[in-house]
Automatic annotation (TrEMBL):
Pfam families: Glycos_transf_2
Gene source species: Phyllobacterium zundukense
Domain Glycosyltransferase 2-like: 3-97
The keyword Oxidoreductase is assigned to this record: no
Record protein name field: Glycosyl transferase family 2
Keyword terms of this UniProt record: Transferase
Record has Secreted as a keyword: no
UniProt GO molecular function: transferase activity
Length: 168
C-alpha cells in the first residue's frame, strides 16, 4: 500500500481533479491514505480534502505528513496532476519489487518539446514521485518541500501516464 502526499496552497479545483484520479487506487486497496499538506489556503481546499476523506494538515511541515502516513511508500503529486487509466498495476508492481524512486511517463499529448527537455530542467515533481518512506526520511531536510526532495533523484520511469498540473 502507498500513502499519497500532496502539498497545496489555494488549489481547491486542481486538488479535486487530482483526487478524482486516485479513486481507482483506493477501490483496489492500493492507497492507504491521502495526506494534504496545506500552506495557508484561503479558498475551499480544506473542504475538498474533507469531502474526499483525506488527512488535512494546515500550516504544518512536510515531515508531519511523513509521520502521519500509514504506508511504507509515498506517492507525491502536485495539485492538478492527473493519473491516467492503467496507473494502478505499474505502481503496485514497482512497490512490490521494492525498487527505488520512480516517476510517471507524461501522456503523449502532454510531453514537453525535445529542446525544452534538454535545455530546461523543469519541475522535478511534475511527473510525480513514488519513493519509499525510508528513503524519503533519509533525504529530507527541515524546511524543505516535496519538490526539493525530488530534485536530483535518479528515477525509474513507470509505464503509467500522467498529465502534469502545469499543462492542465
Amino acid at each position: 500500500m502507498i500513502s499519497v502526499l500532496i502539498e497545496t496552497q489555494n488549489s481547491d479545483e486542481l486538488l479535486a481533479r487530482t483526487l478524482s484520479g486516485l479513486v481507482g487506487g483506493a477501490v483496489e486497496g492500493l492507497l492507504s491514505d491521502v495526506i494534504i499538506i496545506d500552506h495557508g489556503s484561503v479558498d475551499q481546499t480544506h473542504r475538498v480534502a474533507d469531502q474526499a476523506g483525506c488527512i488535512f494538515l494546515q500550516d504544518q511541515p512536510l515531515i508531519d505528513g511523513f509521520r502521519r502516513a500509514r504506508s511504507d511508500w509515498f506517492l507525491f503529486l502536485e495539485p492538478g496532476a492527473r493519473l491516467l487509466d492503467g496507473w494502478i498495476e505499474p505502481v503496485a508492481v514497482h512497490v512490490e519489487r521494492m525498487q527505488g524512486p520512480a516517476c510517471f511517463t507524461r501522456s503523449h499529448t502532454h510531453r514537453r518539446p525535445f529542446l525544452s527537455r534538454v535545455f530546461s530542467p523543469g519541475n522535478p515533481l511534475a511527473d510525480g514521485l513514488l519513493i519509499s518512506k525510508r528513503q524519503s526520511m533519509a533525504l529530507f531536510n527541515p524546511g524543505k518541500k516535496a519538490v526539493d526532495l525530488a530534485r536530483g533523484l535518479a528515477m525509474k520511469r513507470l509505464r503509467a501516464e500522467i498529465i502534469p498540473a502545469a499543462l492542465k
